[in-house]
């Protein structure tokens, strides 16, 4: 009797082990699927955090009124000082910068003279290679290609953080929604720069298409 009871116990244990194995296998499958979705989402979050860090660290070391992002490290990676630079797959992010002002002599900050994005007013570009680990997005693309995840940093973002959230409120502005106020026309304007002329109380917008200041107010 005791022997038979033990057999039932063993059978129950085997069945339970089988169910447990099936559940674990299913869980493993879903963990794999969810893993990649989560990694995509986590990578997006990481890009946002790195953008915040880059904006915090942006500066104007050559005092030409343009804030520059920290220059990319060799192989177009995020500089070590940022403290983060990998996506959720553990791969290095692609990072490229652009200096809107005169090419900056300070090697720590952006000094590129060729644009890194076909999109307007972009200071920097961060791209996760995605699950496939292949960089499909290049400098001709306006949006991320394949499974890449891209985040661009605009001139306006840097200006708004640095000018309105920091202590440099007296610095000349070059944001999307703010005008430079001066008696003489600003040097090195970019497409869409607004200038309020104190000498004749007139608002202008710079247009790179014809290289002229277009009068907005009469
Ligand atoms: Ca500068
Ligand atoms: Ca990819």
Keywords:
218 residues, alpha+beta, four-stranded mixed beta sheet, three-stranded antiparallel beta sheet, 2 helices, binds calcium ion
Question: Your description of this structure?
Answer:
With 218 residues, the protein is of the alpha+beta class. Strand 6 (202-207) and strand 7 (212-215) form a beta hairpin. It contains two helices and seven strands. It is elongated and about 105 Å long. It folds into two domains: 43-162, no CATH class; 178-215, no CATH class. The strands form two sheets. The chain has a four-stranded mixed β-sheet, with no helix packed on it. It has a three-stranded antiparallel β-sheet with strand order 1-2-3. It has helices at residues 2-57, 155-164, and strands at residues 94-97, 122-128, 149-154, 179-182, 194-197, 202-207, 212-215. Mean pLDDT is 84; it is low at 166-176. It binds calcium ion (CA) (2 copies). The site of one calcium ion (CA) has 8 residues, from loops.
